[in-house]
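User: I'm preparing a small set of examples for a lab meeting where we compare how different chains pack in three dimensions. I only have the primary sequence for this one, and I'd like the structure in token form so I can line it up with the others. Please keep the answer compact; I'll paste it straight into my notes.
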Amino acid sequence: MKLGLTGSIACGKSTVSTYLASLGCAIVDADAISRALTADGGAALPAVRQAFGDGVFCGDSLDRRALGQLVFSDSQKRDELNAILHPLILHEIARQLDTLDAPEKLVIGDIPLLYECGMQTLFDAVWVVSVPRETQIQRLAQRDGLDRTQAERRIDAQMPLAQKEQLADAVIHTDGTIEQTQRQIDALLCRLAQRRKP
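Assistant: Understood. Below is the structure token output for the 198-residue chain.
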């Protein structure tokens, strides 16, 4: 069974994904795929350099901070970057999902932009990880060293969480303790197990 896991930035999706991995689920991580594509020698780098120039590079290495500041302050440049990365990421996600898919196995697609990219059709169900907006702003600012305006700009660049919640099969709230989050996941896994019984 293939399960999509999504949310917005700084919502605790990594915490959920890590717990699912600890339970033996196979994880297809879109962020890890993106990082590999933009790491030194990555397949996306030539197109990124051509589109954005040497200013977002330090030698042969991508300057992620410089690129982030550029694309999160200009929606046209963000669309340009997405047009480069998304087809490469989507191709690799689909390849890994097919490789890992097997009866009696739960494969998790950990994909922040799952709905934005129309990838929900690849999955049997989708779970959204969610927190209140204020918690999200505080977490993101603290995690990435951003001021409030920068944090809000990055959050607002994604589909609203409320919209993702409406589309999802289940919502996991991560504004409590880790144990509370894990209990929600355990309950959802039990429900899935019941559904999969013949």
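A couple of notes for your slides: Residues 75-100 form the longest helix (26 residues). The first strand starts at residue 2 and ends at 7.

User: Perfect, thanks.
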